[in-house]
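Quick one - first record:
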Amino acid sequence: MPRRTSRTTLDRLRTPGRLTGFLKGASICALIAALLSPLAQAPAAAAASNDYCGGQCSDILPPGENGNATLAQILLNQAFGTQPDHAEDQLGPYANLAKGASTLTDATINTFFNDASFGVASDQVASTEKPANRSDVTIVRDKKTGVPHITGTTRYGTEFGAGYAAAEDRLWLMDVFRHVGRGQLTTFAGGAASNQGLEQEFYRNAPYTEADLQAQIDNAVANNGTRGQQALTDANAYLDGINSYIDASDSGRYFPGEYVLTGHKDSVTNAGTIDHFKITDLVALASVIGSLFGAGGGGEVNNAISLIAAQSKYGVEAGTKVWESFRERNDPEAVLTVHDGTSFPYATKPTDPQGEALPDSGSVTTEPLVYDATGTGASQSATAASETATATALSSARRGMSNALVVSGKYTASGHPIAVFGPQTGYFAPQLLMLQEIQGPGISARGASFAGLSMYVELGRGQDYSWSATTSGQDIIDSYAVELCTDDYHYLYHGTCTAMDKVEQTNSWAPTTADSTAAGSYTMRVWKTKYGPVEYRATVGGKKVAYTTLRSSYMHEADSIIGFQMLNDPSYVNSPQTFQSAVQHINYTFNWFYADSSHTAYYNSGNNPVRASGVDADFPVWGQAAYEWKNWDPTTNTADYTAASAHPNSIDQDYYISWNNKQALDYASAPWGDGSVHRGNLLEDRVKKLVAAGGVTRTKLVQAMADAALADLRAEDVLPKLLKVVNSSTVTDSTAAAAVTKLQAWVTAGAKRTETSAGSKTYANADAIRILDAWWPLLVKAEFQPGLGSDLYTAFSNNLPIDESPSAAHGPTGSHAGSSFQYGWWSYVDKDIRSVLGETVQGPLAQTYCGGGVLSSCRDILISTLKTAAGTSASTVYPGDSLCSAGDQWCADSIVQRTLGGIKHYNISWQNRPTFQQVVEYTSHR
């Protein structure tokens, strides 16, 4: 069955259902002419603030800064492919690094990145404006990228300008995601199955009422003193700026055209409204971003299911050993961010587990979310989208993405630290992040922020320091088994039969120009307990239970604003220590990196709950007082958290790398896969080699990142060992021999997925790549399923996906998403094959699986599956989708800026790198 590309949030706007017939010659020209109303803005100079980077700070964020488009611009784009100004001008430079990195020099870095110096040179000013005619703020945009440089003379004016600029560049996107955060996307944007899945994914984990959203603001302000009050004042000024732009664009009729296409505005009469933003919208937005990128943990019930399967297969003792070997909680071969040997014990396996509530075999059912579905809310595609959303929401294998390479000045040519880092947030049009510079009282920063949350720069640079983050995976989510009483909607809490709270959101939709999905409706219903929302039901020892999910950041989505406020404050951050202090105020699970002219630093953030003695974080426990977090208060969802010193942290280590790998010794992460082969190894191997040689430059570090971005992890780190087994005796089969020759040539050439030349849209070593893409799932199954048995093999596959090649559809973004090789069985294959070869393996699997541990038998399995893979056609390996024809390997891998609005962009050659990225080397310090 042909694979279809996932169509996330308004993806139909690529080819709107009823827009095509609307685009007709003279009629569209007349319509566009009537709708175009360019705003004239007089150029003016902008003064730069203190900047200690010496012109050596750069950044990039494709596709472009401008994420708003009028109806006329959308129609032009759909009809002729034309782009609004600055909608696509960062996509080309970003894409070109894939083939341009090999000839890179320090002088040409900004061919592929933007100059991220503060301010705008007078001859580079494209426009200046005083939003709402205010005298206390100016927004200057540069000619090259159109990035807003906001300068305020008052704090209120500065934040007003930030809100105004955000609405200028991302109003439609902000509106989409405030509705996602409230579980109201389908009513707002249309009933496409992808929209249904997206709102369901987030509503299941964060079913907030309006009162819940407001309470989070009140608590964040009340608990943070002067800074809390300042954050509230800043947020209100920011909202005033957003709403001022809404009013101005509405009356001037230059608001985003998607409001017309989705039926919220009339293009002729201007009837209809664009709702003002309110402060609770910011919390709804934050809940989406936090859930996507900063909520490590979960998966305890799936862990229990696979443990039970292992014990059923092997017996309790042996099965537990097998399970633990696949879990790799503290694998001695795992790549580490803090690699100096310092241990940071957290969520480790207890010697005597207490309170475990493992389900009876076969009793687990997922809690329904959707009720009373009608029309397209009950269709087959809607059901499939709902199932995918549920799996994503409940999995511990969250899409971490993001990477960082940071080198101490001791090993650089200049003596100053160098960093190349950024978040991998997927590819969207418009992008989830936006670039900006903010200069005002108590704020001095440039960088990226999530649209609608850009009152502060969230990832970027200050006057003499830069910071960035990668998603970490430590466990801040636990599952509790609450014993039911009376009926399915009452449970025992501290011995008292207590009613669950019912939270509902009813949505309905009808066809629009943007989304022709037929009418439909449904109600999302969540049952909440003091231990969080109900996610599963089961029996434990014959007793009926509900499994709930409790997240330490639940009801605390607004708390992190204090940490971001500090990062933007030049009077607060002036050293590695003050940087670490700032990010300690961020309760989401992130790895934070820092560089200035003399120092580097790292800190792992998140509210890590202190668990009761003996509780194993990997499994569900009973919802009883003895197994609750220490000093947990269910009214506020607060508890004792591990001390800052207990979080992995470091200052001035020789180098740091992170690609969502293990942070430090004994620091367990919730997702599986932190073993001997991880995509973090692609950075570790390259940076370690650079540091050993010394004289690291910005060019060399960018090249290391870019080289890793094209590497096939399986081919670089596992394939040579597979070929060693295959070649342990002469390969006599001609088909297998030819495949081996191709694969070996690819490995020798560097194991990259790269074009023959820039723009060729054809891979070098294309046939070897096809063979490995076809071979990997075949060899994994043939290697492990016979020994594990079908049930356990399936259960482990649910804990950790087999593969994540670039062309595979993965996560809520579907295929064409760039980020690859985060989750897969590469470590299992690596350890197992090395055991078969008789090589030393630290932390081996409990058994040897390939051929039962016999080299000749393992070789037979590999050759048999290799022959099958070699004979599998490209059209089968790459079956095609709405963008690519079957067999088009390059296109199957390619990155697409997934449309969240009306503007579409061309796809680019695959790279596995951050979406927003900085290259920094400071020359001096305050």
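second record:
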Amino acid sequence: MTEDLSPAERYAAARKRAVEQATALASFREMYEFGLDPFQIEACQALEAGKGVLVAAPTGSGKTIVGEFAVHLALGRGKKCFYTTPIKALSNQKYADLAKRYGADKVGLLTGDNSVNSDAPVVVMTTEVLRNMLYSGSQSLLNLGYVVMDEVHYLSDRFRGAVWEEVIIHLQESVTLVSLSATVSNAEEFGDWLDTVRGDTEVIVSEHRPVPLFQHVLAGRRMYDLFEEGEGHKKAVNPDLMRMARLEASRSYNPRDRRKGKMLREADRERERRQRSRIWTPGRPEVIERLDSEGLLPAITFIFSRAACEAAVQQCLYAGLRLNDDAARMTVREIVEERTASIPDEDLHVLGYYEWLEGLERGIAAHHAGMLPTFKEVVEELFVRGLVKAVFATETLALGINMPARSVVLEKLVKWNGEQHADITPGEYTQLTGRAGRRGIDVEGHAVVLWQRAMSPEHLAGLAGTRTYPLRSSFKPSYNMAVNLVEQFGRHRSRELLETSFAQFQADKSVVGISRQVQKNEEGLEGYKDSMTCHLGDFEEYARLRRDLKDRETELAKQGAAQRRVAAAAALEKLKPGDIIHVPTGKFAGLALVLDPGLPPGRANGHRGFDQVDGPRPLVLTAERQVKRLASMDFPVPVEAVERMRIPKSFNARSPQSRRDLASALRTKAGHIVPDRQRKGRAAAADDQEIARLRAELRAHPCHGCDEREDHARWAERYHRLKRDTSQLERRIEGRTNTIARTFDRIVALLTELDYLRADEVTEHGKRLARLYGELDLLASECLRAGVWEGLSPAELAACVSALVYEARVGDDALAPKLPSGAAKAALVEMVRIWGRLDGLEEDFKISQTEGVGQREPDLGFAWAAYMWANDKGLDEVLREADMPAGDFVRWCKQVIDVLGQIAAAAPREGSTVAKNARKAVDQLLRGVVAYSSVG
């Protein structure tokens, strides 16, 4: 087409090409065999122009290219680049990628348990490591030019999200920030905040998936498309699925079923039988075989249970499923044996190695947090290499790990969220199905949902068609953050910094709409005030008297009702089995025989003073032969026994004959008795002096004689309601503005009380707290301060420190944990006592755990396992005693090791054994499966 251009246009195009070829982006593009997408080019150009960037794009779209360009720019300009990730596994993966591209001498790795070439110009690290560097003023920050924050949407995580905001706020202004996020629906809002705290930030949003995703439902032997093909953006749900859902909703087939008294016609029954035979939820081996026959492997099947993931692998093995040929099996065995060579044979047996290997050789594996990290890494490597073709995984796999598949299968659209079974959200659905479709390998990706009873195709279409994944800040100040901020910036500047957080930014934005509503309400109040104006006097004052009178009458009515309830409950407490009563009201009003008085626990012996919530709930037999448990609402007035009769020992409430005989005896015994009618007592309002005074004032008020009094009163009532609503809105505004700063003030006040802070000065105790990161930072500091861990052996110290990190997956009804005896047990008990004191202080200073601030109770559930492992016990014995999967055991051990390292750095150097024993405890824990699960 250049021949169509004029000489001037050709010259301009040549100049443009020359300029582009002189850029860093041009040399960077030459490093890749494929061309860059428009959003990648746009983001890279903004970076080269000196701007920060926020890139929000779907999983698998290649947004990490932008992060790698930041690395390229840093190396080209003689600057440092830190590449941060949310999880260690992702850091290890990124380190391997960058070291391969730029050379191991130029790339380092820093995670909680690894340090490789940490002085390199490019260092991959977890976000927490960078946060700790910023607070400690590390020399490594010198000459830092770029920070890449991969998976920045993690700042929504309620446990760790605050770290991302701390880093973003505290990085030097000279550092260019590259934020890489999944597709979020409020990227512009997040970009506005980044613009505020980091300066010029370009927001690049790409909704385009490089590999198109097709949605399906697998029911019986047939794979249905979720959407029918049509023109335009609006997709219609497949009518076949809608018909199936209606058929499922209709009553199930039964040969004796009658429709309007007639037998179903044989033809109808046969047609229904045929339709139903096509609808069932296929088994796991059946699903994999179906995907294999359709050419849709490799696939990840998301199952929201670790045990179910392991069971799925076993089901496929028992079904004789084989997805690998002999050559692939040999390759798998070689890789697995090489990667697990350092694990002793006795440990392999404990870890279920041979069953795991059999699955891998057949191309089938599980992937979840309960697995040994080494095993998970092997599964990831084999899957990427196409040697494992079916993985059954929990949703943790969707978070960051580069493990794309051709297909993703969702067994159910419901998962346990820690409190209840809840539907997955559109954001979670997008995150899970985002794994489907491998760029450069697959032409298209496939998301397959298994048909379940009562499934709604419209609901599934809503999940698949909605891109609602808002980024919500989970930022909250902590004790450690407070002392670090005050030490660096002083209290006033720290408060200002916290008010720049994304959490406060979002809270302030939400106030704008409420403020507008307050303004509208105030205009309405003016109008109402004009309408209720009375020429005879102050109608607002008159309306207030009417309200006060009404409130007082309501209050007395409530008191009367409460007294009647108490009297009724007291009367019920006196009932005994065999008493005959008249139930005054309700569904079972009439004659009844008391079978059981239904007293709450602690009342059986007539003991008074229990906390009565619902009162007695007597079990009675009615004259109509019904046995029912009555409630307090059936007795609005006191009830007394009108007669008594003996209840036969042979009486069985479940026997219709027994009920019939006893009800007949009841009617014979007391059917002729007419209940006393309850007389209404004199109303309390009749004798109340306050009511008499208010009524007198009302009658004496000038507005009482106004002809338009009731009209004015209606406007006054509207004025009052709007005024009340406006006051509530104003309280909401007050509650949302400066919320982070107010929480910080309360934390600072508590730390001042405990002598961690004195105005802008951080005390020695405060400096120790500044080196302790974690959920129970203050408790750890107080234990060091009180010498709770002095004199403990390394194994005993490991047991105590485990209580600072461990959180059981089971509920509160779990058995009491086994504890080491002697000094360790005494120290653990003292830790719980100190926590109780801190909990009381937090309550005094209005620091609430429900808001994500404060110290939870230490969990002693891992103490015995940590103690045994540090005492050189075997893996088999420890896992059996701990009753937990190897992966969980390794993860908790590593977290204990991390906190032990912090304690070793924070403990007093002189006159204390804690620092020395903490280091020894690290060495004693870092062995066997825990040691060889660290990737270096």
